[in-house]
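re: ur question from yesterday

yeah so i grabbed the chain u mentioned. its 208 aa long if i counted rite. heres the sequnce exactly as i have it in my notes:
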Amino acid sequence: MGLKYRFNLKDIKIEDFKVYLFALFKGILPKKKIKNFLDLEAFIQKKSAWVSQVTLYNYLKTRMGTKYVLHFDDEVFLESINLAKWNIYIIALQDLTFFTLSYIHNYFNLDDFEKSRRIYESILDEELKNGMPEDIAAYGKKTFSERLEKIDWKKYCHTLPFNSSALALYKWAPIAEELKTLDRKIVLNSMILKWDNIKDEFIKLAKF
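ran it thru and got these structure tokens back, copy pasting raw so excuse formatting
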């Protein structure tokens, strides 16, 4: 599946800020065409990881200012980042999976919607090997199934397909609640704007 953004925090004290910067740089490199479902799975994994990671770090950096990196010596803070990243990521994966499959349904006549479940669960199974907690993976699969039962494939890609992951960022970011309340609109918009770029990129790359 090629190079991935791995959500493994074993080396976070030394490497985490570098990973963040690498994710920013990686997001602007030339993109591969999406010609089949293996390509699609790779796209969903990489872009969901990128959006989750960059939006969370941007928010933390904005709130903490120049002392942002110093907090990586705080074990409790690191655990809260770890928890936030995985929980935002599982919802980001859902949103992008549903968006891409809805788009393919509308413009490339896809009718096998179980592909969405296979793609999502395949990504989670790989992430379990990279350190995703089993309870978070199980919760992701459960909520994916619940959303899958209710989705309108014709409308999903044309409505507000990334609201759930934006709300997940707002919910899980390890920032004091009184500050998050003030930031709500900015936080939600920051993720939606990044997803808008991913949407445009997918539409240009999809060649089913």
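noticed a couple things. The mean pLDDT is 85. also Residues 53 and 85 are 7 Å apart (CA to CA).
anyway ttyl
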